[in-house]
Design brief:
The protein contains ten helices and 13 strands. It is α/β, with parallel strands linked by helices. Strand 9, helix 5 and strand 10 form a beta-alpha-beta unit. Helix 8 packs antiparallel against helix 9. The radius of gyration is 19 Å and the shape is globular. It starts with a helix and ends with a strand. The structure holds zinc ion (ZN).
Length: 319
């Protein structure tokens, strides 16, 4: 088999949540983020309602859709030349830590946190020294950055490959990671084993039941194909966690409407064949501080009034 056939290899699957093979086609869309060639099909499970990609790249071929430039979306905030984006990124990380501190179990000694898909380690590094911080990251370049920039302890590879068996963590976080996993139920079951009895698992995923998802349809920023292998809503994420032995103690939304809106605008432009300078100019039309200031009252209201583009759930072991 030559290389081209390997990289494009796709597999047909049953619903990753309920194992049903009955589904209806919802979207056939391109890679709107990176523009890697191909069309990808999202189907809705006729039994449980989960939206998932079918067929999808296999575990072996998925790497083709994560080229090195994917890392630019997870670069440290201070290397971002756009001041506004830099501030918002730092503010977002602060909000995430406040959330962790509010829900983490209390301990006398050091608490242990595991960040799965820790990227360049920006989130972990923002935690204080009262934490023992461990990361797992698939991208060798990102993992190396996390070690080099922050001296973090990061394992490169899949979660299951990291030598963590028998260890326990007080907090396990997955920020925008679960929807990238081939077998979310198996990964969640494994995460459950790594959690201390009173530990919490904090998971952020795109929210298909959000106002933005309904409004933007096939252009919604949450449909980051072919890397989002499924896209949950507030009902299916609860079912998924419950099947894996978790119960949700709180759901919140930490992502901003403006960010999702910008991502969706980008996706619209790409799907309408905007490239090169046309793409850049059209993007700048909306992505600047003046437009943001004008839109602020609207996005502020939407943030408070409607379901936002992502859900962050805090889950504990149900038994
Ligand atoms: Zn299903």
């Amino acid at each position: 088999m030559n290389k081209i056939e390997v990289v494009h290899h796709m597999e047909s699957i049953k619903c990753p949540l309920c194992d049903s093979d009955k589904s209806i086609t919802r979207y056939t869309i391109p890679d709107s983020l990176l523009g890697i060639p191909g069309l990808f099909v999202l189907v809705e499970c006729a039994e449980c309602g989960l939206l998932y990609q079918n067929p999808r790249p296999t575990r072996e071929s998925i790497g083709y859709y994560y080229p090195p430039e994917y890392n630019i979306y997870i670069s440290p905030p201070w290397s971002n030349p756009n001041l506004l984006q830099k501030i918002l990124h730092l503010y977002g990380i602060k909000k995430r830590w406040n959330f962790v501190l509010r829900h983490a179990p209390k301990r006398i000694g050091k608490r242990r946190i595991l960040d799965i898909g820790c990227a360049t380690g920006v989130f972990l590094a923002a935690g204080d020294d009262s934490w023992q911080k461990i990361g797992v990251e698939l991208s060798p370049q990102a993992a190396e950055q996390a070690r080099y920039l922050f001296g973090l302890h990061v394992y490169t590879g899949m979660l299951e490959q990291a030598p963590l068996v028998g260890q326990k963590f007080d907090v396990i976080t997955l920020w925008d990671v679960l929807e990238h996993l081939h077998d979310p139920l198996a990964s969640l079951a494994y995460i459950r084993e790594l959690l201390s009895p009173d530990g919490v698992c904090i998971i952020r995923v795109p929210n298909l039941s959000s106002w933005e998802a309904q409004f933007c349809g096939r252009y919604w920023g949450g449909l980051e194909q072919p890397r989002h292998l499924f896209i949950p809503d507030d009902r299916t994420i609860e079912q998924m966690l419950s099947r894996a032995g978790f119960s949700i103690i709180e759901s919140a939304s930490l992502g901003g409407t403006y960010h999702v809106f910008m991502q969706s605008w980008k996706f619209w432009l790409r799907q309408h064949q905007y490239t090169g300078w046309k793409f850049k100019i059209a993007l700048r039309l909306l992505d600047n501080i003046i437009v943001r200031a004008i839109l602020f009252p609207i996005t502020w209201l939407v943030d408070r009034k409607f379901n936002k583009g992502s859900i962050t759930t805090i889950a504990v072991k149900s038994l």
